[in-house]
Amino acid sequence: MQPSPRAILLVTAGFPAAILPSLIHPRLWVVWLAFFGLTALALGIDALVALAPDRLSLRIGVPPMLFVGERGEVAVSLMAPQMVREIEVLCDLHPDFDPAGPATSALPALAEVQLLLPLRPRRRGRPTVDGIWCRWSGPLGLMRRQLYRPLGTGVSVVPDVRPARAAAFRYFGSRELAAGVQVERFVGDGSEFEALRDYVPGLDARAIDWKASARHHALLCHEFRAERNHQVVLALDTGHLMAEPLEGLARLDHAVTTALLLAYVSLRLGDRVGLYGFDQAARLWAAPQGGLAAFARLQALTAGLAYSAAETNFTLGLAELSTRLRRRSLVVVFTEFVDTVTAELMVENLARLARKQLVVFVALRDPALHSLSVAKPQLTSDVYRSVVAAELVRDRELVLARLRRLGILCVDAAPGRVSARLVNHYLDIKRRERV
């Protein structure tokens, strides 16, 4: 319990006014004494009549999941047996949420009032709503009471892939999206046997079934469909290079958005998708599962991928992943490197993984670095920056060329383009039955 601003103002302004009569005549000091007594009585009455904290009923609702930048709300329902002229409610939030001001409302007696407090996450993760503060004054507005309800409730903050997903489905044709979901009628586009059909000139002669043709006294050939139930594993590097900002978001956030988009497309096309996170050690493993219901699970798991300050150990991380894969899979590795020296261990371990798996290497290109490397210098310092940027771009191209020679598919694009290019690569892999 504490005095309100009204009580402080009353005491600050009233005491000097009550002392003035005593300056006129010494016997008038009783005016000051009377003012002091009346003020103390008013404070005491207000404190006694004010609603006790244990009589305030609270119900708190916190959203289980939010998208990055999406505005959510914490619903706080209040009810008390006596009227409160004004009650103030404030959320105690994790720093990853935008600061939110208090919400105020009158609270009638025995009536439930709901207040909605804004909740806007700044970055992906699992920040917490730590608690709720409630503060109100007595009927005279002189004394304040407060109640703190600890919560510690976590909110899964995931990237918003809805706009990118809608754009991807508008961009890709119906034939590509139907591969593996509907039966393909194009011979050679799949590897799973679908039916026998009469052979006509123009079909692949290698698809002719000679035994069936002999039995039916007519040329018959196999009709195939695109194979489903491939295994796709999304391997996300969470090391310190992935925590660097790129176009307003950490590289890891861009990678998670792209990975979730690919996961949605893969699940929709009938494949099974798993998730793996690593930096200096393995941090997360989710075995591949099929069906669109698995997408919500992947979203929740990516929210728990922390931004690490550790250097990535590719030897340990990729070796651990290799031991978990029991069948040939499409492994999509999202990572980052600086130059040819720091990328040496990465290339070596990716080559080892590519001996048994089909590996797609995904890196995010920094448009500012490329612009700096080709910018026209104005000062001597601009020349130095341009030379260093051009050297980094050259090293990057050398590493990517080396990976391609090892049979690793590489996707190196700006954050706004990497999703479309990766899904294009995936559809091409699926069409060619490379897994």
Summarize the structure.
The chain has 435 residues and is of the alpha/beta class. 38% of the residues lie in helices and 28% in strands.
Characterization of the model:
This protein is of the alpha/beta class and 435 residues long. The protein has 4 domains: 2-49, no CATH class; 53-158, Immunoglobulins (Immunoglobulin-like); 162-179 and 228-432, 3-Layer(aba) Sandwich (Rossmann fold), CATH 3.40.50; 192-225, no CATH class. Helices cover 38% and strands 28% of the residues. The chain has 12 helices and 20 strands. The chain has helices at 5-24, 29-49, 162-171, 174-178, 210-216, 251-268, 294-303, 314-324, 344-354, 367-374, 380-405, 415-432; strands spanning 2-3, 57-61, 65-67, 72-79, 84-93, 103-107, 113-119, 128-137, 143-154, 156-158, 192-198, 220-225, 231-237, 245-246, 249-250, 272-278, 282-289, 330-334, 358-364, 409-413. The chain has a 6-stranded mixed beta sheet with strand order 17-16-13-18-19-20, sandwiched between helices. A hairpin with a 3-residue loop joins β16 and β17. The longest helix has 26 residues, at 380-405.
